[in-house]
Amino acid sequence: MSKTGITVKIIGADGNVFNLFGICRRALAREGRLDVWNAFYKEATSGDYKHALATIADYFDIGSVNDEEE
Hints:
- It is built from three helices and two strands; from the N terminus they run βαααβ.
- It has one domain (6-60).
- Strands 1-2 form a two-stranded parallel ribbon.
- It has 70 residues and is α+β, with helices and mostly antiparallel strands.
């Protein structure tokens, strides 16, 4: 289970790290959890691209852009 329990649909999305961060931030805002953003962003940007992806996986559940809406 991720730290937030929020699903982000990044599989099949543009893999640019800033696009992925935008998807994550919008998901946090949608769920009223922007309080997590600063800690997430600080950790995600403290390493390379692989570290950013690993941090996203730590904080969020990963879904595909092709997944049906719940």
